[in-house]
Amino acid sequence: MSATDLVVQGADLPEAAIAGLARASRGGAVERLSATAVRIAGADPSARDEVARRCEGASLDWGFVAAGRRLADFGLLALDMDSTLITVECIDEIADFAGRKAEVAAVTAAAMRGEIDWAESLRSRVAALAGLDASVLERVYRERIRLTPGAQALVEAARGAGLATLLVSGGFTFFTDRLRERLGLTEAHANALVVEEGRLAGRVGGPLVDARGKAFHLRRMRESLGLAPGRVLAIGDGANDLDMMAQAGTSIAFRAKPVVRRQATYSLAHVGLDGVLALFPP
Fold it and tell me: What is the mean predicted confidence (pLDDT) over 199-205?
């Protein structure tokens, strides 16, 4: 049986809590990786329930990883955009310019929790944008969109380790195209907002990038690269990411809804996207 380490991460890493986790996981040496992460060597995965209980109480992220596994062992990194690569939901921010942010955001949140049909929710939310001057898209990009902490470090590390990178979103190409160019991503796919006479028409055009669409793009890219699923790492936060994440050998729920945390390989709720690099060093 291969050796397993326990990686623990959080804004605050009390020594007593880490010592308790080392004992609970029957681990060995504790290595401090950074101010926000430690690695406990030789930990026992059968202790995961106790580790989960302790970490939840201390607001810590945790994950059992094969000792020695590195980012370069993967060949493809796939990322969701809204509330994953960036800190906001673009459609909610666009709706703010129509005075309908609260209404649209409530539908977005329900869709991300998997409580309502995602595709139908997108159509209704996009319809609420009808008539807006298309210039608001540039304003949202410049004024509202911020990269999630650690996002640039993760993408740069992935590129440096030889991974292809895929941004696949139920959001809009106006934003994914700009982020692809800004971050040097290999591919980006999303929905195209229809613009007529300089105004949003309240609908999207082309094939819908919903849950199945996201999974399609990941699978197509994985196959084009000749990769087995085990060499794919996928990161998302909402119910519409689950099909995509199921196509990957390793999945990470990032500040995610409960339905996603339950099904992902790992969950990061307390650190940035660079927390991936503590699990899988470059």
Answer: 96
